[in-house]
Amino acid sequence: MMLTLAYISLYELNALVMGTEAFNGVAAWVFLPAFVRLLGFLLVGFWSIPALFVAALVCVDLSLSPTSQVVVSIFLAVGAPIALGIASKVIGVEASLANLTGSRILILSVAAALGSGAFYHIGLTIVGAQTHSMASFFTSAFGDAAGTWAVIYALKLLLTLAGQAFASKA
Amino acid sequence: MRNVTTIKLINFLVSLRRLPPLSELSGEEERLLFELYEIYQGKGDLSVSDVYDLGGNKSASTAYRNFISLKDKGLVEVDVDEDDKRKRHVTFTKTANQLFAAMG
Predict the structure, then answer these.
(1) What is the C-alpha end-to-end distance of chain A, expressed in Å?
(2) What is the pLDDT of residue B57?
(3) CB proximity B21 to A under 8 Å
(4) Could you say which of A11, A13, A95, B96 would form a disulfide bridge with B92 (CB–CB 3.0 to 4.6 Å)?
(5) Using CA atoms, how far apart are residues B36 and A6, in angstroms rounded to an integer?
(6) Do the Cβ atoms of A65 and A59 come closer than 8 Å?
(7) Closest Cβ–Cβ partner in A39, A96, A163 for B102
């Protein structure tokens, strides 16, 4: 539930700041909600898929039929978790995330972006959407990675400021 | 399950906090500093050999290089043991202790 709300909130913020379907109407150059795909998988693993499905159902606005909307949402929901599941095993991320380093986060974010982009475009192909292409795939993958890291560094800044505020009061 | 998720969230936030470059320390240096702090909290004492142990066989020299960087940046100090000149104690400076206090 929290993941769905976080996704939708970031989607609305993204739409407010830069739009969400800037490339051929299907991909954005920076997509902030992609961070939730990474965070969701790291926290609850494949249990993040239902939350991502509901979020995609709410957010995807491609003028699709209800059935097509469901199909695309399913593919959007599973793409990142599948890629993250594989990547986290390959690079040896511990279940507790105790060994999560900057380079591991980078690899995971790229894997999530590519996985999400690939599955999203497979879904669009299946429903017969005409507006996607290899260029939109790379745009959405880039946008997911950029959006993920934008949120990561915004959080890092908040943590740093909170720490400094705590230290000044202590 | 909620406790496991909480631990994961904390570890995730800690990893974000250690990302460069919004501090004077590199990610590796910051990680080493906090790992040394954890060892100190467990043992009550810290020596240069603990730095090498963190590095392991593959990256002991890298760990030591990062340790020297921490020393140059005024976060740790090294003192020779009075009884055993081979042993070198590591202590945290006031700056490092302020950083640990800020992190909570």
Answers:
(1) 35
(2) 55
(3) no
(4) B96
(5) 35
(6) no
(7) A163
